[in-house]
Design goal:
By secondary structure, the protein is mainly beta. The chain has strands at 13-18, 21-24, 37-42, 45-59, 63-66, 70-82, 88-91, 95-107, 113-115, 119-123, 125-133, 138-140, 144-146, 150-156, 161-163, 167-169, 175-177, 184-188. Strands 3, 4, 6, 8, 10, 11, 13, 14, 16, 17 and 18 form an eleven-stranded mixed sheet that branches. Strand 3 and strand 4 form a beta hairpin.
């Protein structure tokens, strides 16, 4: 803020936005003041904990991290619209998901999950859809790894999952249902459809 203002923020800002809120030292313990989102560094890992967080019809990136590896745990429903929007966008870093996430996008050039790095799914249920014509539900610049949980990805005609270095399944009970290039893909133990 302005040095002449009645209130000035002095503290660290993190390269992480949840909706319109940039995470900083003042808000990280309860980003919105309602208990739905908090950020902490645990054993050197950047952890965003979501507790029933909901964001609907948002024009922009629902969660955006720039240059920091990010782990997201908990539960959330995020829906985005707009020309270039992603429910989760992680730039030049890695993303780990462990929780129940319903992510929707309807956009002209965005993908529902966009990661310039590696994506790891540790557990929970990941339900991802992009209804924009010819847009991926999940785009990963490097490798996508599924260690547990389920992944359901669906699009309007495009590849549901585009992982340049492939998909690794590290759970002996997990399987990939459908062609990896299909517009609907399920990864997990039991098919929900």
């Amino acid at each position: 803020g302005d040095a002449n203002a009645s209130e000035v923020f002095i503290g660290k800002e993190y390269p992480l936005w949840v909706g319109d809120e940039r995470v900083n030292d003042l808000n990280k313990g309860d980003i919105f003041g309602d208990g739905t989102a908090k950020f902490e560094i645990i054993d050197g890992k950047n952890v965003l904990t979501l507790n029933g967080y909901k964001l609907e019809n948002y024009n922009g990136n629902g969660i955006y991290a720039d240059g920091i590896d990010l782990t997201i745990v908990g539960s959330a429903e995020i829906g985005v619209t707009g020309a270039v929007s992603s429910a989760i966008s992680v730039y030049e870093s890695n993303l780990t998901l462990n929780g129940d996430f319903t992510l929707r996008a309807q956009c002209q050039t965005g993908t529902t999950i966009f990661v310039i790095g590696y994506l790891t799914v540790e557990g929970g249920a990941l339900d991802v859809e992009n209804t924009g014509e010819g847009r991926n539900a999940i785009y990963v610049y490097d490798r996508m790894t599924v260690n547990g949980g389920t992944v359901h990805a669906k699009t309007n005609g495009a590849k549901a999952i585009s992982a340049r270095d492939g998909i690794t399944l590290n759970n002996d009970e997990a399987y990939l249902l459908g062609d990896a290039n299909a517009s609907e893909v399920f990864i997990g133990k039991q098919h929900p459809l």
